[in-house]
Amino acid sequence: MMIRIRAFAFAALLAASQAQAQSTWTFDRGATEVGFIGHRFGAVVTNGRFERYDGNFAIDFDHPERSRVRVTLETASIKAGSPLVDGFIAGESMLDVAHYPVASFVSEHVSRTGENSLDIRGRLTIKGVTQPFDVRATVDGDIERARRGEMLPFQASGSFLRPVYGIGRDVNVVDDRMEIVIRGRLKR
Fold first, then answer.
1. Is residue 105 within 8 Å of 130, Cβ to Cβ?
2. Which of these, 117, 120, 112, 4, lies nearest to 55 by C-alpha position?
3. For 13-29, how does the pLDDT look when each residue is reduced to its tens digit (9 = 90+)?
4. CATH fold for the domain made of 23-187
5. Could you give the CA distance from residue 116 to residue 16 in angstroms, rounded to a whole number?
6. pTM (2 decimals)?
7. For 137-165, how does the pLDDT look when each residue is reduced to its tens digit (9 = 90+)?
8. What residue spans define the domains of the chain?
9. String of b and e for 68-97 (b: at least 16 CB within 10 Å)?
C-alpha cells in the first residue's frame, strides 16, 4: 500500500513539473502578421494577409515534443491589396468565406531541428478539408529571456496545394502551391 502511495505521489509530482515547464502564449497582435504568398513560375504574383486570427501556444522549451499549437484564421478578413482582389479570393471559387468562415491549424508533433528552429507537423483545415501540414518555425529572440516571460519573436511558414482544398480549380494566374507565412511575437 505504501509503495502505491509513493508511486502515485511521484507520478503527481512529475505531472506537476511537466505542467509547470509548459507555458501558454498568444499572438502579440500589434507585432504579428499572418500572410500568404502565391507564385507563378517562381515570381511572387500575389500576397496578402489575414487581419483577424487567433492562436494558442503551449510551449515547453526543454521538451518541444510536449508543445502544442493551434491557429485559426477568419477567412473573410483576407486583404490582398484591392477590394476587387479581396472579393475574388473570398468568393465561392476560392476560399468561399460564406460557407467556410474559418481555416485552422492544429499541431500533432513538434520537434527541434536546430538551436532556435522547430518542425511542427499537424493538420490544416481549409474549406472543410483537413490535410497534413508541416510548418517550419524559427525563434528570432533570446529563448532564455522568453523563459522569464518576455516576448518571443518568431517566424513560421508552410505551404499547401490549392487543388487539394478545392481552392481556385480554374485559376491559372498563380501556381498551385501557396505559402502561409507568420512573422511576429508571442506573449504570455
1. no
2. 120
3. 344 444 446 899 999 99
4. Lipocalin (2.40.128)
5. 26
6. 0.86
7. 999 988 898 888 899 999 999 999 999 99
8. 23-187
9. bbebbbebbbbebeeeeebeebbeeebbbb
